Amino acid sequence: EVQVVQSGAEVKKPGESLKISCKGSGYRFIDYWIGWVRQMPGKGLECMGIIAPGDSDTRYSPSFQGQVTISADKSISTAYLQWSSLKASDTGMYYCARLLHGTSGSRWFDPWGQGTLVTVSS
Amino acid sequence: QSVLTQPPSASGTPGQRVTISCSGSSSNIGRNSVNWYQQLPGTTPKLLIYSNNQRPSGVPDRFSGSNSGTSASLAISGLQSEDEADYYCAAWDDSLNAYVFGTGTKVTVL
User: Fold this and answer.
1) Mean pLDDT, chain B, as a whole number?
2) How open is the CA angle B7-A46-B39, to the nearest 5 degrees?
3) Separation in Å, CA of B110 to nearest CA in chain A
4) Do A107 and B92 touch (CB under 8 A)?
5) What are the backbone dihedrals phi and psi of residue B81, each rounded to the nearest 5 degrees, phi first?
6) pLDDT at position A19 over 90
7) Phi and psi of B105, rounded to 5°?
8) In this complex, do A61 and B102 lie within 8 Å of one another by their Cβ atoms?
9) How confident is residue B1, by pLDDT bands cut at 50, 70 and 90?
10) Do A109 and B51 make contact, defined as CB atoms within 8 angstroms?
11) Distance between CA atoms of B59 and B50, rounded to whole angstroms?
12) Do B101 and A106 touch (CB under 8 A)?
C-alpha cells in the first residue's frame, strides 16, 4: 500500500525551532516529489512547497519562501518541514502528500499524510 | 491569497445535482489540468478528480469534473448526505511556479 505517514502533534513556544517529518512507503520514494500543505484553523489549503527527494530540488510557493525549510533524506524515505523560529501564526495543521504528474501539465497530490497539528503558544 | 476562486458555499437536497465553479487565469487553469479534493469534516483531504475529469479508483461516478478556458467545475449528481464536505480545486500555476488551491466550497446537504 502506498502511503505517507507523518510525525505526531507538536506544542511549542514562540521562538522555538521545529522539524516535522513525512515518511513514504509502498513506492520508490525518489521517483515522486513530496509537497507540504498548510491548513490554518478554519481555513483553506495552501501549498507551501515541494521537494524532489532524489536530488533535493526544492520549489517554495512565494508566500512561504524564507519562512520554512523543506528537506529530504532519501536514505530513509523521509521528507521534512522545518521552522527556525516559530510564531503563534504558524499554528495549524500541516499535511504532506505525494505529487503525481500526468499529461497537459497535470499534477495532483495523492496520497496525503494524516496531518501534523502544530500549536504555537506561550 | 488564493489565485483560484470558488463560491464559499453550495447546497442541495438529497438526489439533487450541485455544481461548484473554480475561476482561475491563463497561468493556471488556462494552461494546466485541474484537480479536485474533498475534505470531510475533521479528516484529511482526499483526491476526488485529477486531470480535469479523471476519477481515482473508488470515487463514485456521481462526481465529475470539466473545464473550459480559465474556469473549471465540479458536479455532484444524486447528492447524498455523506457528500457534506469542503471541496477544493487546484492546479499548477506556471507564473508562480507553484501548486495553488482554490478558496474552497462548503457543500451542505439540506
Assistant:
1) 96
2) 60
3) 22
4) yes
5) -60, -30
6) yes
7) -130, 125
8) no
9) low
10) no
11) 11
12) no
Cell, residue B6: 470558488
* Closest chain A residue to B2, measured at CA: A46
Neighbours of A76 (CB within 10 A): 10
Give bridge partners of residue B93 from the DSSP assignment.
Answer: B98
B31–A47 C-beta distance less than 8 A: no
Residues 6+ apart with CB under 8 A from A49: A35, A36, A58, A59, A60, A61, A64, A68, A70, B98
Whether the pLDDT of residue B2 is over 80: the answer is no
Q: Rounded to whole angstroms, what are the CA distances from B48 to A51, B35, B52, B89?
A: 23, 8, 10, 10
| B94 and chain A in contact, CB less than 8 A | yes
Chain B nearest C-alpha distance from A110 (Å): 6
Our CA-based measurement puts residue B63 at a distance from the nearest CA of chain A, in whole angstroms, of 17
Place of cell 438526489: B15
Cβ <8 Å between A44 and B102? yes
**Chain A interface, Cβ < 8 Å to B:** 35, 37, 44-47, 49-50, 59-62, 95, 99-100, 102-115
Over residues A61-101, the pLDDT tens digits come to 999 999 999 999 999 999 999 999 999 999 999 999 999 99
Mean pLDDT of B73-87: 97
pLDDT at B54 over 70: yes
DSSP annotation of A30 reads G
Q: What is the CA radius of gyration of chain A?
A: 14
Radius of gyration, CA atoms only, chain B:
13
